[in-house]
Amino acid sequence: MNPLQRLIQKTQSVNLDQSFDYQIKRQRRKTIALHILPDASVEVRAPKWVPKYEIMDFVEQRSDWVIEQRREALAKLALEPGFDHGQYHPYLGERYPLHIVAGPRAKVVFSDSVIVVTVRDKSNSTQIEKALDRWYRQEAEAIYEERLFACFEVFPDWFQDKYVMPEVTVRKMRRRWGSCSSKGDVTLNVSLIKMPLACIDYVITHELSHLEEFHHGKTFYRLLAQVMPDWRERELLIEDLS
């Protein structure tokens, strides 16, 4: 077994007549943790030294919870919009209908509360999805840069004198809305563009606050509360919408 296989294993847990697969990820940690991923798959993160039978017992004891969480995740997936004419897609906290038109060049335009998607083949959902993905990324890059400048300006003068406003990298992120590296590089999830501006500003302000303190310590929260007093409400909003 190679090192990667030792760190990532797959097994199955059975609860009465229901079953689910789960993946075991060995990590440098002290406890076992269960995670239901957005695609409804189950991931178990465990210390490298814990025997497999103990992990299986841990999962079995929590199988009812896992099944319920997977049911909720699958229900969310079922509600995800398709790519047919008239179906609604999220953008900046609202949902707008798709208007699919045929044309020689793929493009997306947001006009009069409608997302107009031009593709070669109106019946090709893959073409529509790719065009939408490109549009979301373009919108994210433009709007995140604009909101980054606005959020940075709200920080106190001493902060703006101490730090250079970072550039933003936009990419797909499975588990986080944003991140700030120890070097001060800010990355934002492209899917954040589907959230209200209040949520986008919260994530950006959260990551900017990490320039002063990398971890979630007292200094970090003191600065965050100073710049954005209602950050808790915004955090709850983004959790409710996720």
From TrEMBL:
Gene3D superfamilies: Metalloproteases ('zincins'), catalytic domain. It comes from the Bacteria. Residues 30-235 form the YgjP-like metallopeptidase domain. This is YgjP-like metallopeptidase domain-containing protein.
